[in-house]
Design goal:
Number of helices of chain A: 11
Low-confidence stretches of chain B: none
CATH class of chain A: Mainly Alpha
Oligomer: heterodimer
Low-confidence stretches of chain A: none
CATH superfamily of the largest domain in chain B: P-loop containing nucleotide triphosphate hydrolases
CATH topology of the largest domain in chain B: Rossmann fold
Number of strands of chain B: 20
Mean pLDDT of chain B: 91
Number of domains of chain B: 2
Structural class of chain A: mainly alpha
Shape of chain B: globular
Strand content of chain A: under 5%
Distance between the termini of chain B: 41 Å
Largest sheet of chain A: none
Number of domains of chain A: 1
Order of helices and strands of chain A: HHHHHHHHHHH
Distance between the termini of chain A: 43 Å
Helix content of chain B: 25-40%
Radius of gyration of chain B: 25 Å
Order of helices and strands of chain B: EEEHEEHEHHHEHEHEEHHEEEEEEEEHEE
């Protein structure tokens, strides 16, 4: 029990003292996961709309596959990205392995199914009557899509928050494609894992608390945004 | 040339025929009511006219031009109309944004939009509601937002699907007032689907009766309510007394109809031997305690079998050898002391009876 108590006091200490190393790690976590979530959203919102508003053969099967990929293990994505960007791999020439861009790509791949699936289900929550009403009022196809996205904004935002949550909390992919290099690719989750294995339980717990605090702040900010 | 013309339209969902051979034309500025029971196909017909659905077969002409079955032109034509759906669907946005969206989609200038929206909100009595989320409104208020959203577009054609279904009488009256105001002020062409016959009668210049996907009869209110074309229409428009009979004599337009136990005098040109239905609206039957002298040719001694109070009116079922239903005011029901078993005279004019040809089923 003392470890948890120590962790709490340590967390408060690290936050109040604005410990430079912790701040750097937390900032990196935020920027990598924020970027991957933003980029994935830019892809998934239009793509999800496209899938939702079109009827085609195999749509049901595609949605099933997307939903299955919600539970893809982070290490499997890590492995895939590792192979993709390793020197001998197809995209090895880019030379981004063990650098933040590779981690962004990994997290994007990880959360794309989640964002896509949740966007589709958010849009499905908007009734057919709303779509008809918009059409009747003279909305073009594209204007209708924008309106429906707006109608579903709470559920769409929830999807984005879920995606960000999964990105910032995963460790397998960040470790495999980032390598937990101090000052370069170390993020909160990989640091927790390292400190714990070193026996620095209080520091590990403190980092965990900081991670949750970050998630809390992001949630508050996004919720404020949506209420406007 | 009519503004909207529908020729030989058929539509089916799977195996089920929803609309069969609809031919209809509506003139510019005309208010047309489509009446029929639930499930008759009114909504589907309106959806097809609003180009939300493509009919199985048949043509629609708008302003003289045949509407293509797909393509951009459909959006252009749809933007000249507006459709108010049965259940008002307001967007999860402010009342202002709800009303403005149609104008925004049409690319209207921003400063013009504000003026128009304010004006319409005042007209529908929602002036102070601008910034409220439309989802927080009551049913009547939401319906007024839906109306405002359509009115603000000043469409050439307004399609209304049961505009007052599920509303209380006060909201209904308000909405009916608004609809007739807009029809008069802007000379808007309207097609109103309703199952409420009195609403159709009150708002429309012309009425069409849609039964089971077929447009059975069109005409003005008097035609439809006084002279229904067949038994189905007669039932639907509230002809409670439909009596089978055979014309046994015709003397210069005054015919005698044998209805089994009795004979009634009617105005009709059908010759003797014709099998007919004699239809009498319940409000055209007078009840009296004695066989008073009057110009009415039909007077029958009867016994009251049932009395039902319907607000200011009483519905009285009587037996005069055949069954009749009469509507009398509550006051006269009390004066006549109408109750089960009471003996009265049922009196109606020969002109108050509408005669329909009876189709002999093979």
């Amino acid at each position: 029990m003392t470890e948890i108590w120590d962790g709490l006091t340590k967390a408060i200490e690290l936050i109040i003292s604005l410990d430079p190393e912790v701040m750097e790690i937390a900032g990196r976590s935020l920027s990598i996961s924020g970027t991957s979530c933003l980029l994935a959203s830019l892809i998934c919102l239009p793509l999800g709309s496209l899938i939702h508003f079109h009827n085609f053969r195999g749509k049901r099967a595609l949605i099933n596959i997307i939903q299955t990929l919600f539970s893809v293990p982070t290490v499997v994505v890590g492995l895939f990205v590792l192979v993709l960007f390793s020197r001998a791999g197809p995209l090895g020439e880019l030379g981004i392995l063990f650098k933040p861009p590779a981690m962004v790509v990994g997290q994007m791949i990880l959360i794309t199914p989640l964002l896509l699936g949740l966007t589709i289900s958010a849009l499905s929550g908007v009734s057919k009557e709303i779509v008809d009403t918009a059409t009747s009022l003279g909305a073009s196809g594209f204007q209708t899509v924008l309106l429906v996205l707006r109608e579903a904004r709470y559920a769409v935002l929830a999807a984005v928050i879920m995606g960000f949550g999964r990105a910032i909390s995963e460790v397998g992919c960040a470790l495999m494609v980032g390598g937990n290099i101090k000052g370069a690719t170390r993020v909160i989750t990989t640091a927790i894992s390292l400190e714990a294995s070193k026996g620095e339980l209080a520091l590990a717990i403190a980092l965990g608390i900081i991670l949750l605090l970050l998630a809390l702040i992001i949630n508050i900010v996004l919720n404020r945004l949506q209420q406007r | 040339m009519s503004l909207i013309e529908i020729a030989g339209l058929n539509h089916r969902y799977g195996e089920r025929a929803i609309l069969e051979n609809i031919n209809l034309s509506v003139d510019r500025g005309e208010v047309f009511a489509l009446i029929g029971p639930t499930g008759a196909g009114k909504t589907t017909l309106l959806r097809i006219i609003d180009l939300l659905e493509v009919p199985g077969s048949g043509e629609i002409y708008f302003d003289g031009k045949c509407i293509p079955r797909s393509g951009k032109q459909r959006l252009e034509i749809r933007r000249r109309m507006s459709f108010i759906h049965q259940k008002p669907q307001v967007f999860n946005l402010s009342v202002y944004d709800n009303v403005a969206c149609g104008l925004i989609w049409r690319g209207e200038e921003k400063n013009k939009i504000a003026g128009k929206v304010e004006h319409i909100l005042e007209m529908v009595g929602l002036k102070g509601y601008k910034n409220r989320n439309a989802r927080t409104l009551s049913g009547g208020e939401a319906q007024r937002v839906a109306l405002a959203r359509s009115f603000v577009l000043e469409p050439e054609v307004l399609l209304l699907d049961e505009p007052t279904a599920n509303l209380d009488p006060v909201s209904t009256a308000k909405i009916e007032q608004l609809i007739s105001y807009v029809a008069r002020q802007h000379n808007t062409t309207m097609i109103i689907a309703t199952h409420d016959m009195s609403q159709g009668q009150q708002l429309a210049d012309r009425i069409g009766v849609l039964l089971d996907g077929r447009l059975v009869q069109t005409g003005n209110a008097t035609d439809i309510f006084r002279s229904p074309q067949n038994e189905e229409v007669a039932h639907f428009v509230g002809m409670e007394n439909i009596i089978e009979g055979v014309i046994i004599a015709n003397n210069e337009g005054i015919a005698t109809v044998n209805i089994g136990s009795n004979a009634i005098q009617v105005v009709s040109n059908y010759p003797a031997g014709k099998e007919v239905y004699a239809c009498i609206r319940p409000e055209d039957i007078t009840l009296a305690l004695s066989s008073i002298q009057s110009s009415a040719r039909n007077s029958f001694h009867a016994k009251v079998t049932q009395v039902t109070f319907l607000g200011p009116l009483s519905r009285v079922e009587i037996n005069c050898g055949f069954r009749l239903v009469a509507l009398v005011t509550k006051i006269s029901a009390e004066e006549l002391n109408l109750q089960v078993g009471r003996e009265v005279y049922a009196i109606f004019k020969a002109t108050g009876v509408h005669i329909m040809e009876r189709e002999i089923s093979q």
